[in-house]
Design goal:
With 381 residues, this protein is an alpha/beta fold. 47% of the residues lie in helices and 14% in strands. It is built from 17 helices and 13 strands. The structure holds uridine-diphosphate-N-acetylglucosamine.
């Protein structure tokens, strides 16, 4: 096993789009804390397209990764195994003090599993979230990563209860707030106004940029992989768009499924502007200025809560319950009637505004870095 307790370096891992906004403030906080540990960045290459990667590194000023494993796409087993095989020699060479992973994607569990078996401590940012739905690949990744982690950083208090219930020691759990919201507040002033994005997209060329529009995102396998489910969802979204136009940045997975199922025609007849995936600052601007957001993303449920924009979540559950109990989120599922009912309510009442949850204040990454430094000193050989 590599001897790592004398190392002053934390190896931070990213892999997929939602990891990038989480790592940005952590890298900044490590860089701003010269007295303590330093951070090195590794990208697994799970997401690799310019629109899924480069735009985020540039806009969020994330340092270029020191290492890129370039794994690319594959089945879950292929992708996870490829990351593990390519990550192992990196650890043997670098012998970092710890490996820091964020979120719940395949890169998160793959790197955590390699590190723990080499006796390298794992630090998990966004620990303890549970949907209770084990058919979600992310739920498996969350449960297993948390079991392997030495330090577990949580975004909401319910996460601690989930972790304790699974037998994880309370001493490693730290409620620090939400690094994704650090990024949101840090960048809010630079968000690209929706009108500018519409102009760039050539959307709404009928002179009139609508005051009321909805932002739509869909990419969960449970919503897009089955053509019957996808068509049912798109049909109700097309209906909604007849009253309120929608903007729909398409994740590559969703683009592929729509093309493969021949559903493009359906969209063409609707008031839905589709685009390639957008950059962070364009999405932030569209989200901020929208009347409501329809989504199956986890991160967007949190971002809309921080912005006070009503969010209609097209899933049966959420691993982020605070966005419902305190925030602006309503989990409606995929039943067309329920979606229309919620949409109608949002349009007639303005929808839920909610409030910003505790410690979602822009300083979560600094708390994390302070705790990691204290932990490192306390556990040094
Ligand atoms: C992954 C995460 C999911 C996260 C999502 C955000 C897992 C299990 N899932 O799902 O939690 O919400 O990222 O986007 O880790 N593709 C491209 N270009 C890319 C990346 C992907 O074209 O840069 C295409 C490939 O055909 C690939 C498909 O998108 O097969 C899906 O990518 P993958 O990384 O397997 O999962 P996501 O659906 O993106």
């Amino acid at each position: 096993m590599p001897s790592n307790s004398g190392s002053r370096e934390i190896l931070c891992v990213v892999g997929a789009r939602p990891n990038f906004m989480k790592i940005a403030p952590i890298m900044r906080a490590f860089a701003g804390d010269a007295s303590g540990l330093s951070a090195r960045l590794l990208h697994t290459g799970q997401h690799y397209d310019a629109s899924m990667k480069h735009a985020f590194f540039d806009q969020l000023h994330i340092p270029q990764p020191d290492i890129d494993l370039e794994v690319g796409s594959g089945t879950h087993a292929e992708q996870t195994a490829d990351i593990m095989k390519r990550f192992e020699p990196v650890l043997d060479t670098l012998k970092p003090r710890a490996v820091l992973v964020v979120g719940d994607v395949n890169s998160t569990i793959a790197c955590a599993l390699v590190a723990v078996k080499k006796g390298i401590p794992v630090l998990h940012v966004e620990a303890g979230l549970r949907s209770g739905d084990r058919s979600m690949p992310e739920e498996i990744n969350r449960v297993l990563t948390d079991q392997l982690s030495d330090l577990l950083f949580t975004t909401e208090l319910s996460a601690r209860d989930n972790l304790l219930r699974e037998g994880i020691a309370g001493s490693g759990i730290h409620f620090v707030g939400n690094v994704m919201i650090d990024t949101l507040f840090f960048n809010l002033g630079s968000a690209v106004p929706a009108a500018r994005t519409f102009e760039q997209l050539g959307a709404f060329t009928d002179q009139e940029i609508p005051l009321d529009y909805g932002l739509l995102t869909l990419h969960r396998p449970s919503n897009v992989d089955d053509p019957v489910v996808l068509e049912r969802l798109l049909r109700v979204l097309c209906d909604i768009s007849q009253s309120t136009p929608l903007v729909f940045p398409l994740h590559p997975r969703t683009r592929m499924r729509i093309d493969a199922s021949g559903l493009n025609e359906l969209l063409e007849g609707a008031r839905i502007t589709t685009t390639a995936p957008l950059g962070y600052l364009e999405m932030l601007g569209l989200m901020k200025d929208s009347r409501f957001v329809l989504t199956d993303s986890g991160g967007i449920q949190e971002e809309t809560t921080a912005l006070g924009v009503p969010c209609i979540t097209l899933r049966e559950n959420t691993e982020r319950p605070i966005t419902v109990t305190q925030g602006s989120n309503t989990v409606v599922g995929t039943d067309p009637e329920k979606i229309v009912e919620c949409y109608t309510d949002v349009m007639s009442t303005g929808g839920k505004q909610g409030r910003t949850p505790e410690l979602w204040d822009g300083a979560a990454a600094e708390r994390i870095v302070a705790i990691v430094n204290r932990w490192s000193e306390a556990t040094a050989a």
